[in-house]
Amino acid sequence: MPIVSLPEWQEFLRHHPNAHLLQTAEWGELKSNFGWTPIRLTTGKRGGQILFRKLPFGLTLGYLPKPITPEDDMATNRQFWAELDLLCRERRAIFCKLEPDAWDQDPRGRSGEYQSLRISRHSIQPPRTIVINIKYSEDEILARMKQKTRYNIRLAEKKGVRVRPWDDLVAFHKMMMATGERDRFGAHSLEYYSKAYELFRSGGMCELLVADYEGVPLAALMVFARGNRAWYLYGASTDDQRNLMPTYLLQWEAIRWAKSRGCETYDLWGVPDHDEAALEAGFEKRSDGLWGVYRFKRGFGGELKRASQAYDRVYNPALYWIYRLRMAGSEAG
After folding, report:
1. What DSSP character marks residue 307?
2. CATH 3.40.630.30 describes domain 128-306
């Protein structure tokens, strides 16, 4: 079986500079500290870092996020799937969830090789997002934003909000917890954010930025970059001085950081899973879930995108049926 070691995986990724963040060795090591076991497979130009989660009675769940699938290798390389099947069966996986590194309507996400997989109604990563093209000059990026967003960025600058690198993970975690309680989303532990910062920043793939006013932190975010892509994964703000619009300047400086690293796209990572017409019709009326997030993110001039559908490769049909039943029940509740 072509399982590779961590150093071998890092060497493999060197030949795929634009592989997704979730396929990096650092992401696997992060998850290994919080209940997942990463196993890395390569067959030719194809590769995947599979995460396994232990279940009772020696069973597991497998998760393959954004695997590396070169276009010239999509339809013919069956060996990877055979090796994945062998690995999952050895690990007694009920199923392995696959999320292709492709957008909806992209043929790479609808390849014939996925026909043996079940289309899944449930994804792990946010299915819909806004992606900003940052190949342009800073003036052009600003010009593509909504007028109100440009105004808020300049207001924050004019009023004396300052954005700078930060390393106070304890304060960042407190801010994340407060934001999660206010906006009703789950935050990770202090240990999680600290480990992510440690792993990715040492390789130049992460920065923690804070927006403060007269030395008081008002908002902070953690931005990640690899190859020509950047991702805004974690962000928080206080209830203090919101009239100074610190989150707008903070996001702009994160975009500038990503651009300085040679990134061409900036993924705002998660908005409500509705088409653009529904989002535009509803964002001024709704504030539940990610609707408030969409109201903020839409102003930065990006393109609404939906990830390719998720798939499940099933190894234990009976237990998989129970899983689907429970997921359906949680949706109904």
Report:
1. B
2. yes
Domain ranges of the chain: 3-124+308-332, 128-306
**Per-residue pLDDT tens over the stretch 117-146:** 899 989 999 999 999 999 999 999 999 999
- Determine the pLDDT at residue 331: 60
Which two tokens mark 239?
């209830």
Compute CA distances 18 → 30, 233, 284, 333, whole Å: 20, 18, 36, 39
User: Is the confidence at residue 85, as pLDDT, over 60?
Assistant: yes
Collapsing DSSP to helix, strand or coil, 153 comes out as helix
| Assigned token pair, 317 | 């049909």
Q: Which fold has domain 3-124+308-332?
A: Aminopeptidase (3.40.630)
Query: Mean pLDDT over residues 282-294, rounded?
Result: 83
Alpha helices in the chain (DSSP H): 6-14, 25-32, 79-90, 138-143, 147-159, 169-183, 190-202, 246-260, 276-282, 291-297, 317-332
Three-state secondary structure call for residue 166? coil
| CA nearest neighbour of 48 among 315, 324, 311 | 311
Question: How far apart are alpha carbons 113 and 302 in whole angstroms?
Answer: 31
Give the confidence band of 329 by pLDDT, cuts at 50, 70, 90: low
Residues 6 or more apart in contact with residue 313 via CB below 8 angstroms: 62, 84, 85, 88, 95, 96, 97, 98, 116, 117, 118
Bridge partners, residue 219, by sequence:
211, 237
Q: What is the DSSP letter of 308?
A: P
Query: Are 3-124+308-332 and 128-306 the same fold in CATH?
Result: yes
Strand order in the sheet with 162-165: 162-165, 206-213, 216-226, 229-237, 265-267, 128-133, 303-306
CA distance 14 to 22: 15
Q: Going by DSSP bridges, is the β-strand pair 93-99/60-65 parallel, antiparallel, or unpaired?
A: parallel
Question: What is the DSSP code (8-state) at residue 298?
Answer: G
